[in-house]
Specification:
By secondary structure, the protein is of the alpha/beta class. The chain has 2 domains: 2-168 and 349-367, 3-Layer(aba) Sandwich (Rossmann fold); 185-347, Glycogen Phosphorylase B (Rossmann fold), CATH 3.40.50.2000. 43% of the residues lie in helices and 15% in strands. It is built from 14 helices and 13 strands. Helix 6 (120-132) links the parallel strand 5 and strand 6. Helix 2 (15-23) packs across helix 14 (350-367).
Length: 368
């Protein structure tokens, strides 16, 4: 059983793992709230269960209801292994699985902002993680900072943790393509449209560059008005677009095509990322990257080699680094992108992620 907070997330980030598990002969049950991507899960060879989930809410009654739903579903399916991703499946799905004697493998794919803010919610989430991870067979992290934080805080035993190269990237699907070669450089930010992803900083940096007479295209791609307190509204996006500072491209099921039309992919996130998938895919397609020198993001970029790192929450520094991309001769931008491709091949191949999961599951089955 593999559980996430959206079917979209399953299709876009875990389809390779699902296919690999099916190919190994496992009966895979995918669990997530229903959305328009749920129908695509069946084509991966797995079964699908709709499980309602208040992803960002903190109401204790709704969370107890979610725990009960996980308990009923796991008792019905009796899986050999429960694979948890994203915060609520990791906490409530794991608690239910442990109660029923089901082995658990967790994936901590970034901590968001709750771990950067002190307060009751921070302490509550830490306590819930400590309890829910206490009997897990394996807990994967996507960067060393998150792994060290959980171990040093006593939230998980160092004996069960391991590091994954993000969610990995399919190097056969995301392959190098030539830069667009247009006179105007196109910068593309791919993310959920959240303030914490640095979307506001990207807009402010674009505005600064335009005021300085620097010609470039600044494009945004990703979901608007998502279920998150940091979500950017449609009204706010309309204001930016009407101002002429950015273009909003909406959402796309063909990310490769959008990356192919960009000269540089940007993510000025100050969110506590795991390892951003959009940056891995962009690097795999030989695109230079500009991102923040922050947890998760910095793992994808060797500063000055395959892109540039900027200071978080600093539109002026972001504008400076994007201007440096523009100033590079086209051949050097191309070489910077190819160095990114090489880095992804060496460090972030999806096959590494899949092999670690298959190995952990085989060991569980041997022990059982």
């Amino acid at each position: 059983m593999i559980a996430l907070n959206t079917a979209w997330n399953l299709v876009n980030f875990r389809s390779g793992l699902i296919r690999a598990l099916v190919a190994e002969g496992y009966d895979v049950v995918a669990v997530a709230p229903y959305d328009e991507y749920a129908s695509q899960l069946l084509s991966l060879g797995c079964r699908y269960h709709h499980l309602p989930m208040d992803n960002k809410g903190t109401h204790p009654g709704r969370d107890l209801l979610l725990l009960a739903r996980f308990y009923r579903l796991i008792r019905l399916e009796v899986p050999d292994v429960f694979l948890g991703f994203t915060i609520k499946p990791n906490i409530y799905g794991s608690l239910a699985a442990h109660t029923l004697g089901v082995s658990v493998i967790n994936n901590i794919a970034g901590l968001g902002t709750v771990f950067t803010k002190d307060g009751l919610l921070n302490h509550l989430v830490r306590a819930l993680y400590k309890v829910s991870l206490s009997h897990s067979y394996k807990v994967f992290f996507q960067n060393d900072e998150d792994r060290q934080l959980f171990v040093s805080s006593g939230l998980v035993s160092k004996n069960v943790v391991d590091r994954l190269p993000g969610s990995g990237v399919d190097l056969d699907k995301f392959t190098p393509v030539p830069l667009p070669g247009k006179p105007s450089v196109r910068f593309l930010l791919i993310a959920r449209m959240l303030w914490e992803k640095g979307v506001g900083d990207f807009v402010a940096a674009a505005r600064l560059m335009k005021l300085r007479g620097i010609e470039a295209e600044f494009c945004l791609l990703g979901f608007l008005e998502v279920q998150n307190p940091s979500a950017i509204s449609q009204h706010q996006m309309d204001l930016w677009v009407d101002e002429g500072v950015v273009k909003y491209l909406g959402v796309s099921d063909n990310i490769r095509n959008e990356i192919a039309q960009a000269d540089c992919v940007v993510l000025p996130s100050f969110y506590r990322e795991g390892t951003p998938r959009a940056l891995l895919e962009a690097a795999a397609m030989a695109r230079p990257i500009v991102t923040t020198d922050s947890i998760g993001c910095r793992d994808v970029v060797d500063d000055g080699i395959n892109g540039f790192l900027c200071c978080p929450k600093d539109p002026a520094d972001l504008a400076h680094k994007m201007a440096r991309i523009i100033a590079l001769p086209p051949k050097e931008r191309e070489m910077m992108g190819l160095r990114g491709r090489k880095k992804v091949e060496l460090q972030f191949d999806q096959k590494v992620v899949i092999d670690k999961y298959l190995e952990a599951i085989r060991k569980i089955r041997i022990c059982n």
